[in-house]
Amino acid sequence: MAVFIAERPPAAAGTTTEPARPAAVPPLASASPAAPSPAAATRVVAQRVATPAQPAASRTPPASSRRRASGRRFVLDLALVMVALVAIWWSVVLVLAPEPFLLPGPDRVVLALIRRWGDLWPNALVTLTEILFGLVTGILAGVATALFMGYVPAASRVVTPFVVVLQSMPVFAIAPVLVLWFGFGLASKIVMATVIIFFPVASAFHDGIERTDPGLLDLARLYGAGRARTLALIQVPAALPALVTGLRMAAAVAPIGAIVGEWVGASSGLGLIMMHANARMQTDVMFAALALVVAMAVVLRLAADLLADRLLPWLDETDR
Amino acid sequence: MPRLLASLALAAALGLTALPAAAADKLSVALDWFVNPDHAPLVVARDRGFFAKAGLDVDLIAPADPAAPPRLVAAGQADIAISYQPSLHMAVAENLPLVRFGTLVETPLNTVIVLADGPVKTLKDLKGRKVGYSVSGFEDAELGAMLESVGLSLKDVELINVNFALTAALSAGQVDAVVSGYRNFELTELDLAGKKGRAFFPEEAGVPPYDELIYIARRDRAADPKLGRFVEAVEAATLWLTNNPDEAWAVFRKADPKLDDELNRRAFFDTLARFAKRPAALDATRYTRFAAFLKAKKLIDTIPPLDSYAVVPKLPN
């Protein structure tokens, strides 16, 4: 029995450098193989999934610190890419000298950002509020849907098409109706952001749940673990990396939902500022608002990384 | 061999471009919005042969965003755009190289519309209410001036962008008034939806009168004789449809099956009185008065010399 488990590397830790060793599962030794209790078995497996084999020696730093290092590297890469983009943008403006209403230079955009800060900042806060609420409801709805589909596999045959249909609907087309239903206030923007955030979370998490190592599922079945226990102690931990992927995508697309909502109906927000700037031919102000939206998306993405790091410290990333 | 191919291709290209040059001159016109009765003179001029007689082949393009046409023209993507006089002043203030060279609709069409059986009986009743608008960059100033005429200010209302869902937002009760509705269109739209509307006219409430729809072109093309021929054709079409409204409606409804409905029929006849009968004429006093109004409302910083952004086209002979 012990050998059977030991020879299977834990699904969730597919990238660990060392294969699992029997010594890493002490509770199994104490549990009598003759009369295994389902509770003991699921606990064992859960530990196996959640805490993969410890590295034999300390020459490899723990996964969490390596992830933190890679997080720092991501920030650095991002900063470099930003600097490069601005440099390219500026040189295009200097060399081709397009008229400012076609493409304003970074200097003009920064000036607009400063000049209009008193107007931009309160509206950015409105948009940020919509995004954060949208993230909360979208992630909750996505996680709940994925869990439901994992718990009742038969239902997923019905729910999946719904999820796909919801995703394939262009938000821009349904946005005007959503605004009429939910009003021009916060609610319609949150609904819009939720719709956009829901899909990456639900589909990524559900995929993760579906792709649990069959060996672990066999084991749970062998120990007589029920569906709820299997889901909670084996499938969900195994699917967490997939959920993190979904969350990162959600963080990146969340501003789109809020902005689309503001575009079709709002009394404040960066989307409205952009519409006004567009109508008044103030391309520099439009770019300034856009820069704030991008900044928000980047910060959200970094927050998602940080959260993943905290929640799943054991989750390792392949070194680049 | 490649050189031979290249010269053949060049010859073919020259031959192809030489052919249409002998025919009518092409002009592209970016409309302010999808084709509607406001564009009747253009549609009639095209479909009744007024443009052809002037040696023009005019292409009408409907954009998705009414703010796009001025930039399309400034960027050289279209020859002519239909725009709004307030927008022209603001575009010029943002250094877009544009000039007005003709008028399509010579009165404001914009109105503040409320439901007739609603709580707003006068402009004063707007205090504390929600007002919907579609962003054209001018509504807040316009509504502000109208509110000031009754002792209120913009701070007394909540402005909500409803992005062209004006009638829907008003009917659904999401807003108490809308400020971008046209007197010749949205009022009728409401009526057909079974609701009676009440309109407040900006030019009767503190806003100096302006041309709702104008023809604009790139500044460096202001003297292009094609623009003069274009305005002359539009002038002929306008006079013809003023004299023969029923025949004109028959021409207009055939242009696009989507136009042939009750809303467009009523809007068509309501708009007849609004078309500029002298599309080339430029009222200098009116333009400078309006520029002064925009400056007072802080929508533009300076008032540029009129001839830098509004001209009378060169008419052929």
TrEMBL record, chain B:
Query: Its domain of life?
Result: Bacteria
Leader sequence range is 1-23
One Pfam family for this entry, by name? Answer: NMT1
Q: Which residues form the SsuA/THI5-like domain?
A: 36-248
Q: Which InterPro entries match?
A: NMT1/THI5, SsuA/THI5
Q: Which residues form a coiled coil?
A: none
Give the transmembrane region(s): none
Biological process according to GO: thiamine biosynthetic process
Record keywords: Signal included?
Answer: yes
Give UniProt keywords alphabetically: Signal
Name of the featured protein: ABC transporter substrate-binding protein
